[in-house]
Design goal:
CASP_dom (chains A, B), elongated, membrane (chains A, B), homodimer, about 200 residues, transmembrane (chains A, B), CASP/CASPL (chains A, B), cell membrane (chains A, B)
């Protein structure tokens, strides 16, 4: 009986270990992917400039694109740092789980807002706005707008990665807490008057 | 001994119930607050139009502001619906926890992006952009820009509420799962070779 219980607990422990290793590998890869994507988005945007008869236009002329470059840089740096921290197997602490959770959320919001405001600028540059007399800049700077669009599209893939990473870091953090009533998983018998 | 254990479990259960009731009340209030804020942001934006010697300008002339109006409407509707669902005390199921988690995340992204792109438009309207010949519209339509700014500021308060709501719904969802190794809280004894 005691032997059976030990075997059972060893098997359960092994399963949990395999699951944890699998999750750690998946998370490390999911943190390395945005590094590559952010660098590509960054480089495309940094090299985005066009000169023609109408004048010259560079990414640095537009505030939203400068913000996207900074956000991509921060994101690439954080992604590589966090991938290294996650890859090293060691017991997860509460403060580490909270740090990852908060920073992942913050990065998601940062990169989403960078993508959103750049999309708005490209949209305005393509369509213009007659009521506020803003011209369709992309008519004269087609190449510039196409490169910016490519960079923004990659930024949205990064946003998706970070949405999933936020999910993983929420799981890592909150699965350490007890479930709210009545799904208390500590095995406490909940009296009937509570339900 | 058995009596002590029963008492202990009853006290733990009562504590958990009080905590759960407190959390539910806080969550309900936090879901009702965005209803009021979204409606205010919506009304300010809907009434935002100005006519003068330079012409007339309405929120509906600008895509980003139309998006903000729609996002605020959706957010107000979802907030009131979810507040009602949360307020009714009943056992939380896994599918309900997942639905809240995913919808709260989605709403956070929706309302954040609405705030971000509208901020970009107002920023451009105030500052203009000489390199792409976009004029400083707010120079002629100051009142219009001030109202839009107020509406956007409220939208960012809603974003903050939703960031906290996302945290609560993550907690509700993931605290039902077991913790990853080595913080297994099911009481399984983890063999030494795992650490």
């Amino acid at each position: 009986m005691g032997n059976d219980r030990m075997k059972e607990s060893a098997v359960a422990g092994e399963d949990a270990m395999n699951e944890s290793t699998g999750l750690r590998t998946a998370e490390t890869l999911l943190r390395l992917l945005p590094v590559a994507l952010c660098v590509v988005a960054l480089v495309i945007m940094l090299k985005d400039s066009q000169s023609n008869d109408f004048g010259s236009l560079s990414y640095s002329d537009i505030g939203a694109f400068r913000y996207l470059v900074h956000a991509s840089g921060i994101c690439a740096g954080y992604s590589i740092l966090s991938a290294v921290v996650v890859a090293i197997p060691r017991p997860s602490t509460m403060s580490r789980a909270w740090t990852f959770f908060l920073l992942d959320q913050l990065l998601t919001y940062l990169i989403l807002s960078a993508g959103a405001i750049s999309t708005e600028v490209v949209y305005l540059a393509y369509k213009g706005d007659a009521s506020i007399t803003w011209s369709q800049t992309c008519g004269s700077f087609g190449g510039f707008c196409r490169k910016a669009t490519a960079s923004i599209a990659i930024t949205f893939i990064v946003t998706l990665c970070y949405a999933v990473l936020s999910l993983i870091s929420s799981y890592r953090l909150f699965s350490k807490y007890d479930a709210p009533v009545p799904c208390n998983n500590k095995g406490i018998e909940i009296p009937a008057f509570q339900t």
